[in-house]
Design goal:
Elements: H1 2-15, H2 21-26, H3 33-45, H4 47-57, H5 59-62, H6 68-79, H7 88-96, H8 98-112, H9 129-132, E1 136-140, H10 147-156, E2 160-164, H11 168-172, E3 178-181, E4 188-191, H12 201-204, E5 208-210, H13 213-222, E6 229-232, H14 239-248, E7 253-258, H15 261-273, E8 279-283, E9 299-304, H16 326-344, E10 351-356, H17 365-375, E11 379-384, E12 403-405, H18 407-410, E13 415-422, E14 446-447
Parallel strand pairs: 2-3, 6-7, 6-9, 7-8, 9-10, 11-14
Antiparallel strand pairs: 1-4, 1-5, 3-4, 10-13, 11-13, 12-13
Helix pairs in contact: 1-3, 1-6, 3-6, 4-6, 4-8, 13-14, 16-17
Length: 465
């Protein structure tokens, strides 16, 4: 019942204007924030349908003590979700009215001349065709297992493994209980979009991480070798940090920072479940971290994924701001420039990845251009993942070295990634004047990541059904 109570509290907070969806979810104290976020987002998406169902079935009139927000999340999960997971009197209450609610839902479909639940949604609240095609991505946590063992586990659960994908179209065509190995990232499995693994043993034990493909790119492209010292500057909720630890094989040191105490607590739980060691987690604003502190004298790699508008997220709910004003974008870009400049000031830094889940040029190419201009010949852009189809906008010469992702083109959330490296002594950084024509990347600048899965390792921990 805790899940539904927490979801109802978030809905009530949104109605009272106490904050955005993400902040209310993270501040709820509920341990499984992604599960809570998904339930509230979907309840909000079906809000108008749920209001009509509650009115038509007269549920609130029949159950005087049932709060409207709680009624919405219960009815959503009963009719549109995975089925009620609670027990006690609320489950009994919902089941008592199930027949009436299902009858009202059937009448609504007849009135609107539709056969599918999603067709009841208004155009402005329905998920776009591109967004609805974004699959369920599952990152194998190689700190606890390996790709082959996870594939075998899912096959024993009745899933059909189709091998490694060759095209994005193959990912788009997934249906039922079929899954693929991603064509770009060697430890990423791909399932149909509505597949839910929050209650799966592999997820609850930390053997798999539910993480969008675009979100996996920053740590993958940073690519620190085992033994490196790495900073994750704006780390919560921790998926990228756990991915860094897996890349490092828990050898080396990660310094992870986030300013929000509740997000840090959530992150600590996630990292513990994922088997991460060698990570110092600090509740601290990264801008207050002293680059000259001896503790960070060996930091050679930094992952910087700062606060942004979130305009690339396809799972945004109606309780979150979608359109960003020019003033807000400028404020965000100012913060992003400051934090990127700060990150580049660490004396031993060799490689940095800057990423956002924003679609706006102001937060992406413009930030990178401004900061590189300030640093002159000290740092340069590296052409990350040359075969990736979406490149940076032509805001300046060399911007095509950056990488973008989108639901339509890459079947992911909207994302931006730039890889920066310290220039070697005497090497000239490229010009950052506004581009007139697209230039070809210089020979040798491409950094194409490996794309073959790891072999089975017999010493890895196995999970039994």
């Amino acid at each position: 019942m805790a899940l539904y109570s927490a979801a109802a509290a978030v809905l009530a907070g949104l109605e009272r204007g106490e904050g955005g969806l993400k902040s209310l979810v993270y501040n709820s104290g509920f341990p499984h924030v992604r599960q809570l976020y998904a339930l509230v987002s979907e309840t909000l998406r079906y809000a108008s349908v749920l209001d009509k169902l509650l009115d038509g079935a007269a549920l609130l009139q029949a159950e005087k003590k049932l709060e409207p927000q709680l009624a919405k999340v219960l009815v959503y999960d009963l009719l549109f979700g995975k089925g009620l997971k609670c027990g006690g009197r609320w489950k009994a209450l919902a089941r008592r009215h199930r027949a009436r609610l299902e009858a009202e839902l059937a009448r609504m479909k007849v009135r609107h001349k539709v056969s599918r639940n999603e067709e009841l949604l208004a155009p402005e609240t329905a998920v776009s065709a591109a967004a609805s095609q974004v699959p369920r991505y599952v990152r194998v946590n190689t700190l606890k297992t390996c790709v082959d063992d996870v594939i075998d586990f899912f096959k024993r659960q009745g899933y059909a493994y189709l091998g490694k994908a060759a095209t994005v179209e193959e990912l788009k065509a997934l249906s039922g209980k079929k899954f693929l190995l991603d064509l770009h990232l060697p430890e990423l499995l791909v399932f149909p979009s509505q597949t839910d693994f929050h209650d799966n043993l592999l997820y609850t034990s930390g053997h798999i991480i539910l993480q969008d493909k675009a979100s996996c790119l920053p740590a993958f492209l940073l690519g620190p070798v085992a033994g490196s010292h790495v900073i994750d500057a704006c780390a919560a909720p921790g998926n990228k940090t756990s991915q860094l630890a897996a890349i490092l094989k828990n050898k080396g040191q990660i310094f992870a920072f986030d300013v929000d105490p509740k997000r840090v607590a959530t992150m600590n739980t996630l990292l513990t479940r994922a088997g991460v060691t060698g990570c110092q987690l600090a509740q601290q604003d990264f801008l207050t971290v002293d680059p000259r502190d001896p503790r960070y004298s060996k930091v050679t790699h930094i992952l910087l994924d700062p606060s942004c508008s979130g305009s690339g997220m396809v799972t945004r709910g109606p309780g979150e701001e979608v359109a960003s004003s020019a003033e807000r974008l400028q404020a965000l870009a100012g913060f992003q420039r400051r934090v990127l400049n700060h990150a580049l000031s660490f004396p031993a830094l060799q490689r940095l990845v800057y990423s956002t889940c924003s679609l706006h040029q102001e937060e992406n190419e413009d930030v990178v251009q401004a900061v590189l201009q300030k640093w002159g010949s000290a740092f340069r852009l590296v052409t990350a993942f040359p075969s990736w189809p979406c490149r940076g906008l032509a805001a300046f010469s060399g911007a095509e070295s950056c990488l973008r992702a989108s639901p339509a083109e890459t079947l992911t959330h909207g994302f931006f990634v730039a890889v920066l490296e310290r220039c070697k002594e005497g090497a000239a950084a490229p010009s950052l004047l506004p581009a007139v024509a697209k230039e070809s990347p210089q020979p040798g600048e491409g950094t194409e990541p490996r794309a073959t899965p790891k072999k089975r390792k017999k010493k890895k921990q196995l999970v039994k059904e």
